[in-house]
Amino acid sequence: MKRLAVYCGSAPGRRAIYMQTARDVGRKLASMKVGLVYGGAHVGTMGALADACLEASGEVIGVIPRALEQRELAHHGVTQLLIVEDMHERKAKMAALADAFLALPGGAGTMEELFEMWTWSQIGLHQKPCAILNLEGFYDPLLMQVERMVDEGLMQPNVRDMLRVGRTVDEALNALSLLGK
User: Alpha-carbon distance 77 to 54, whole Å?
Assistant: First the structure.
């Protein structure tokens, strides 16, 4: 079974579309028979994503650091919950379990996890596709900054192109071409 690591927030966001889109991704992965690997929380868009995937009979693997599990954020209803020592181990475990990576709208943690996987791809630690779901232009400012990095000669165009972009759930999943097959 293919697996997708999805990075998203422990907060629901101010607009209902964030929670709805997380649920849509969870249901879509289950329907595609693609396993979900995510941050292991039961709150925010993470919880909505996991619950929707589970409700659609999908596989859900949560990976959560012990400190967050102890603060009662862990989703104990997932297919498999892996409790790790810290965020470094979480990212490495999620990377090992996943065949591709997708960032939904989220905060600093979402960005940090996405950027690490994108960087690992750049330096050859893996060759797994990375994408963002640019829901209603959420990531437009980031994409403008990436273009600036290329324009300023601080990033090569091929590195920019390693980050795939979709504006809808289907576009984002299709951008991770191995998932659409």
Answer: 9
